[in-house]
Write a structure and sequence with these properties.
The protein has 148 residues and is an alpha/beta fold. 49% of the residues lie in helices and 13% in strands.
Length: 148
Amino acid sequence: MRTLVPASFTDEGLFLLDTWRRENTTLVAPALLAFEVTSTLRRYVYLKRISPAHGEKAFEEFLRINVRLSHQRGIFPLAWHLAKQFDRPRAYDMAYLALAQLRGCEFWTADERLYNAVRPKVDWVKWLGHSIQKRSPTPRSAHSGNRS
């Protein structure tokens, strides 16, 4: 969402997406990403946080992002386990972490609370708030945005 609707870390998210595009990095996310983005953009338009035209443009841009949506069966049982392990209220946030764990890839997020909750035990979680210009993302990255 940070790359579609201006917010904190929009520039960092755009930089990271551009880097991944240039390096031909495969992006993966749980299939629920498509529903979350669609729902959030629609809610922003409905609440007049963005104009209908901006909503349409953001939705079209989302559809152009080359991300593989995973329906891997193991994601949701692992998300449930991780939500309990890290004492998180929402298992859907943990679905992104679960997929990254299953795929053995980095997990990038703009959600600082989520990052802070899991980072002490999971070193492959990356937060957009850190200076990503100095980092080189590894191939294959799962990603998540901060929900508003």
